[in-house]
Amino acid sequence: MSFIHVYEPPDAAGAPILLLLHGTGGNEQDLLSLAEILAPDAGVLSPRGKVLERGMPRFFRRLAEGVFDIEDLEFRTGELADFLHASAARYGFDVRQLIAVGFSNGANIAGSLLLLRPDALTAGILLRAMVPLVPDPLPSLQHSRVLVSNGTQDPLVTPAESERLVKLFRDSGADADLVWQNAGHQIAQGDVAAARHWLQRAAPI
Questions:
Q1: CA nearest 26: which of 98, 102, 132, 78?
Q2: From 87, 149, 154, 177, active-site residue
Q3: What is the pTM of this model?
Q4: What is the CATH number of the domain that holds 87?
């Protein structure tokens, strides 16, 4: 397989599998405890980002803070999507069982997957996410569901950027929700509560 990763099957066949996508400097272990809180019966697929920035794993390159290398983002999105399909074949699940839970850089690659490769991912919880890129033309995402949970005190992601991201998903036809946390660029208790509530009503198609 092309990514170092952790896989744990769900308790029941066909149940959701959380695709855990860490932030900069994280690894495949980072979000396992969060997954246990969000959906203890769900499976887990947690890859480690393959790009290194000063030794810190990421899922794609950036040129500066908040400035993405779009060519690399598109390549890494395709690479990750192919890994998801390969994992589904190896472990015996349907990619439609996958629900991304991404934080920061992981949320941004999840957003890119949702926009560019809806064949591999149709549902996601994006924590502290930015607009990864704007496809032209926009994709058709009528079967996609997205929760964006961002912080009002986040120094890296402005409210306008958050609104622009959700509008991009909605303009593409996705069922997209935006919730706000009184927090900065870190996962807060409000994110956990919002994600648990969203998961309870957003099982994969």
A1: 102
A2: 154
A3: 0.96
A4: 3.40.50.1820
